[in-house]
Write a structure and sequence with these properties.
With 719 residues, the protein is an alpha+beta fold. 33% of the residues lie in helices and 21% in strands. The strands form seven sheets. The chain has a nine-stranded antiparallel beta sheet with strand order 8-9-10-11-19-15-14-13-17.
């Protein structure tokens, strides 16, 4: 979500180039000849391999799938204690198909994709991702309940699927119906690409017997995945991805000539299905083969309809517990709350990852440590918590504070840039707003009992190390950032409030003195009077040395170039207003808006949007490309502008409605949208932060008061 994330994805793109070179080599290879016996012959008189291991060498590299998800889901089993939780599985839907599936934690993907292929044995190979038009339908507005209809672009046939996680087992169930629209002789294949434990490099696969039916088993170390269907299999094979897997085989002559029983490395399964409408596919997981087998068997025995009913009822239980805003809650309100909740881990409660998606995943190598946005950022977690407070989910907010306090906070009082769900740091930089945000959240939650354990250590760290930051909130440049300083000031004032309640008057006085000092100096550090845009007077995105009028050259990440610091603006300075540090009518604020809008705002057909800053390169240059490229419009910034307009006494509903239009048909709000259409790019959809912005803005519009403005800060500096 930020540009250090972009740096990593750019490096992954370099790795992809090398992988593409290797891919070309593999695709040009002639598969190793099959053994002399046993053999059969097809109409083209080519040998058919039956049984045994796939010959040849494992594939060198692979990628993931698009970050533009149509939907996400998990069973609502959050009312179980972590050791007793029966369903620790999450799924995503992208390109009409089941894509990444996570188990046993929300940050560990094990499946790249599961999709259908169709041939007529003579003239075509149809790929459900590439060759179909996809229609997504939310079958229940109070559940993460999706139906996807994939219609052949030539109108020959149609595949309809429903997706649900089994609330009683570590399994995902997919119900499928195949319908011929034009009569023909079609063969239907289920194509499955595992990436167990976040990579396919060490996967092993084979076929097993499961209560009298064939099943596919893939595993890596202590994670096992079993796949079976209620429809009979007419043929099946597992091979090396892009070399002698079923896709490569079918692509060569539209027939399944090879049928291998086992393979290792980056692998793919293909199973010819005898359609038996509707049929169920179950994918089960476990820490042993037996556990995964049992998860699948239980799912097939229960039947899809029973799994579906319990899945939907679980989410109803959650949405029924939420504040309905006096009857003014929208469908997207409930959808956003569920999206945020579904990003929470079920072992490390309170750990909410930034997104289940991996931005531009089709250009990112399947390396075990590369988990996209499936990490926990304290800043994103703060916004998720504020969104959940807005809907009345106080219990999850308490879990978040417990996680921040007991798992993520460092001994210094600071917070890591981001972590795995178990609290292990991933990236190593320091962002001071991430130190301040947990304090502000503790203030909102009135968590007096966390003063000594969480608040005081974090506030002492801010006091001693602020206001400059190694990275601002976009995780790129260091120095003096208006948005970061706003969070630090608010954090210190909130800490002082909690210190007084805890009887620590001396610390309260110390925190307030530092907050007042920084509040008086914000413009000296970050506001230029010699800018290169408009009238030359505005807040800079960041001033590395705290001298905003200097002609200082600032290098930008993601191939953004090198530019005079005075030519780079960012709407994030509005955090000064949102957090109560400045009045919405403060002349420094109002003077900065025209220049910032000139350089970063675009009016799309769906509503206004903002770039993070001018020259941003964190985004694809065109559809199908990865980063670096060109940054696009961030939906969360539309929400932030709406909060500013509301604070200024103006109409905020147009920004709320723009966020609603930015959401896709599955109710997912993207990270970024295209300037010309307002539709989501292939970055991260959904983005938890964007859904949180929607919830906070909707509640604020309904009540007429900015929901997440800390009153202690606002009263100190605006009254």
């Amino acid at each position: 979500m930020t540009s250090q994330r972009g740096v990593r994805l750019a490096l992954a793109g370099l790795g992809l180039a090398l992988a593409a070179l290797a891919l070309g080599v593999w695709l040009s290879r002639t598969p190793a000849p099959p053994p002399a016996a046993p053999t059969l012959f097809t109409s083209k008189e080519s040998p058919t391999r039956q049984g045994g291991p796939a010959p040849g060498t494992p594939t060198l590299g692979d990628t993931w799938t698009t970050g533009a998800k149509m939907g996400i889901g998990t069973a609502y089993t959050y009312d179980f204690s972590p050791p007793d939780n029966p369903s620790k599985v999450w799924f995503t839907v992208g390109g009409g198909n089941l894509t990444e599936v996570m188990y046993p934690t929300v940050d560990m993907a094990n499946l790249k994709e599961m999709k259908y292929l169709v041939t007529d044995r003579a003239s075509f190979l149809w790929d459900e991702t590439r060759d179909a038009d996809h229609q997504v339908t939310l079958l229940d507005k109070r559940a993460l309940a999706y139906q996807v209809t994939s219609t052949d672009k030539q109108g020959r046939f149609q595949i309809t699927k429903r997706f649900a996680a089994n609330a009683r087992a570590n399994a995902v169930a997919v119900q499928t119906t195949f319908q011929q629209l034009i009569p023909g002789r079609y063969q239907l294949f289920l194509y499955l690409v595992p990436h167990v434990m976040n990579s396919g490099s060490q996967d092993r696969g084979r076929f097993i017997d499961l209560d009298g039916r064939k099943a596919a088993l893939a595993w890596d170390r202590d994670v096992y995945m079993v796949t079976a269907t209620t429809a009979p299999w007419l043929a099946h094979s597992v091979g090396h991805l892009r070399d002698n897997d079923g896709y490569s085989d079918l692509k060569s002559d539209f027939r399944l000539d090879w049928q291998f029983d086992e393979a290792q490395g980056r692998i793919a399964f293909v199973m010819e299905i005898a359609p038996k409408n509707p049929w169920t596919t179950a994918i089960g997981f476990g820490d042993s083969e037996m556990a995964a087998r049992e998860a699948v068997a239980q799912s097939l025995d229960r039947g899809f309809e029973e799994i579906w009913r319990e899945y939907v009822a679980g989410w109803h239980r959650y949405t029924d517990s939420l504040d309905n805003l006096g009857g003014k809650a929208t469908d997207l309100y409930y959808q956003s709350a569920m999206v945020i909740k579904a990003h929470e881990d079920k072992t490390y409660r309170g750990a909410i990852v930034a997104s289940l998606a991996l931005p531009w995943g089709y250009s990112v190598l399947d390396e075990e440590e590369n988990r996209g946005y499936r990490y926990v950022w304290a800043r994103d977690l703060y916004h998720a918590a504020m969104g959940l407070l807005a809907v009345g989910d106080r219990s999850t907010v308490d879990q978040i504070l417990e996680y921040l306090d007991g798992v993520q906070q460092l001994p210094t009082g600071a917070f890591p840039q981001n972590t795995y769900v178990d609290g292990k740091p991933y990236w190593s930089s320091l962002q001071m707003d991430e130190v301040a945000d947990p304090i502000i959240l503790a203030w909102w939650a009135k968590a007096r009992g966390r003063y000594l354990s969480l608040v005081k250590p974090a506030a002492d760290f801010l006091w001693a190390n602020g206001p400059a930051t190694k990275q601002e909130r976009w995780e790129e440049n260091g120095g003096y950032s208006p948005a970061t300083i706003a969070a630090e000031i608010a954090g210190l004032v909130c800490a002082a409030d909690l210190a007084r309640e805890a009887g620590d008057a001396s610390s309260a006085q110390k925190y307030l003195a530092k907050a007042d000092e920084w509040q008086r100096a914000v413009e000296r550090w970050t506001f230029t009077n010699k800018g290169l845009i408009s009238d030359g007077r505005y807040y800079l995105r960041v001033a590395p040395t705290g001298e905003p009028d200097l002609a200082l050259q600032l290098p930008l990440s993601n191939a953004g170039g090198v530019h005079d610091q005075k030519s780079i603006v960012d709407p994030s300075f509005l955090e000064l207003v949102r957090l109560g540090v400045r009045s919405p009518l403060d002349p420094y604020v109002t003077t900065s808006i025209p220049a910032t809008d000139l350089m970063t705002m675009v009016r799309t057909p769906l509503g206004p949007g903002w770039h993070r800053y001018n020259f941003d390169g964190y985004g694809e240059a065109k559809p199908g490309a990865g980063v670096p490229g060109k940054g696009h419009l961030w939906t969360l910034l539309t929400g932030e502008r709406g909060m500013y307009e509301l604070a200024a006494g103006r109409e905020a509903r147009p920004y709320l409605e723009a966020l609603e239009r930015f959401a896709n048909t599955g109710g997912m709000i993207p990270e970024q949208v295209w300037e010309d259409t307002g539709q989501g790019t292939a970055s991260a959809t959904p983005l938890v932060w964007s859904h949180a912005e929607y919830l906070v803005l909707l509640r604020s519009v309904v009540t007429g008061v900015p929901f997440d403005r800390p009153e202690a800060v606002y009263q100190r500096y605006n009254k």
